[in-house]
User: Fold 2,5-diamino-6-ribosylamino-4(3H)-pyrimidinone 5'-phosphate reductase from Neurospora hispaniola.
Amino acid sequence: MTSAVSPTEPQGTPSLSDGLLHFPTSSALKLEPHLPPPRSSPSPTITMTNSNPNQKPFVTLTFATSLDSSLSLAPGVRTTLSGPQSKAMTHFLRSRHAAILVGVGTAVADDPGLNCKILSPLSSSPEGVGNGKREQHPNQPRPIILDPSARWEVSEKSKVVQLARLKQGLGPFIFTAKEVGEVPEERRAVVEGVGGKYVRVEGLKLKGEGKGEGATSRESFAWADVLRTIKEEGLDSVMIEGGGSVINSLLSLEQAGEQELVDSVIVTIAPTWLGAGGVLVCPPRAVGRDRQPAPPVRLRDVSWQPLGEDVVLCGKILR
Ligand SMILES: NC(=O)C1=CN([C@@H]2O[C@H](COP(=O)(O)OP(=O)(O)OC[C@H]3O[C@@H](n4cnc5c(N)ncnc54)[C@H](O)[C@@H]3O)[C@@H](O)[C@H]2O)C=CC1
Ligand SMILES: Nc1nc(O)c(N)c(N[C@@H]2O[C@H](COP(=O)(O)O)[C@@H](O)[C@H]2O)n1
Assistant:
């Protein structure tokens, strides 16, 4: 971790007095080959459904990791890994995606804002000399929370709700296996009151883990169903931020060569070891038909960009 920064403390950013972040154009240009096409207009408050729902959205897998592949010190502990410059990079990515997806574990642990705090390009410089005003970027991503059993106790106090109320972000779409009528009425009212909604995803599967005594099962959507639902909501691109269970389940599909869902991978690597007990990015190793380990997943078209004390790795999954 950086010299003066505690990983569990909120960290300083290259923000100006109003909290807005600046990401230099020169750094943004280096990311361009790894991004979806620019969004033409700000996200509408009411999303239009897509006329061609059969394709999937552009999928960017992006997260910040330590040198020992940890996303956080422990499950449920919000942990700062990105330094100021790479944090600004993440918020730039948020301006370039129609949606941002996290699992309910992250929503509960982090109470995230899931908005974009990048300065509007109309402000044209950190000092705001463009149109003379300093404004937040107009392209806000739609927060999506994967919450099959609707366990997230979203309320007026949730950061994502507060930001949407202030028009500094969009209301969340909560992907659940529940019928909308089964979701507690007060939570539904909060979410719908800021332009969000509960979205029922079909095709929930029970995944068994372990055998015999102590075996558990957990509910999981097929990723193809999640992505199709995102596209049907009129959202053409999604950045998948975490946490561990979301990232590992997505990577395990790529690892097994079962499905090719991820278009781009953008990882911030921070110069720190979080130690044992963290939430790891470590997908299960794929096994071939002969029961031997399958070739591991690798990135191609790789680029590395130092940002402050971190390095940002971009690539595409080698097919
Ligand atoms: N460093 C970073 O960039 C990030 C760090 N984090 C950290 O990760 C930790 C949370 O990670 P986890 O505990 O693994 O929780 P998680 O955020 O991955 O959520 C797990 C839950 O999401 C749901 N889920 C996941 N995959 C699903 C699927 N295919 N279908 C349906 N539902 C699905 C399930 O309900 C599951 O219990 C937190 O400590 C958080 O701070 C989270 C995001 C980014
Ligand atoms: N890029 C990045 N760097 C870190 O150090 C992080 N801890 C995270 N976490 C992700 O960002 C969310 C919190 O940020 P906001 O409140 O939404 O601004 C958190 O929930 C993770 O998804 N990311």
Notes: The radius of gyration is 19 Å.
